[in-house]
Specification:
This protein has 4 helices and no strands. By secondary structure, the chain is mostly helical.
Length: 107
């Protein structure tokens, strides 16, 4: 795996961090700490996406980045916030993961 794909995975992980930080800012008394964390995660996510796009086509990079962020945030919602894991939601989650894997394999 090239360094650009590593950057893209890191960008995707940070992409999970900012909505998580925003959610946590709504559920705790440490609101501003989590908002600042969300802003930092958003900036880092953008930085690593920018680094990844040096070698990975923009369409592929963006789709994988948002896929990691969407699937990861979805999973965090179920695990930590009691979001519903309904069958249609889980099937859609699997499709997002399959799409991300398919884009990586097609590159």
């Amino acid at each position: 795996m090239s360094l650009s794909w590593t950057y893209l995975i890191i960008a995707g992980i940070f992409e999970i961090g900012w909505p998580l930080g925003l959610k946590l800012s709504q559920t705790t008394r440490f609101k501003f700490s989590f908002i600042i964390g969300a802003v930092v995660a958003l900036a880092m996510s953008g930085l690593f996406l920018w680094l990844a796009q040096k070698e990975i086509p923009i369409g592929t990079a963006y789709a994988v980045w948002t896929g990691i962020g969407a699937a990861g945030t979805f999973a965090m919602g179920i695990i930590f916030f009691g979001d519903s894991p309904g069958i249609l939601r889980m099937m859609s989650f699997v499709l997002i993961i399959a799409g991300v894997i398919g884009l990586r394999l097609a590159h």
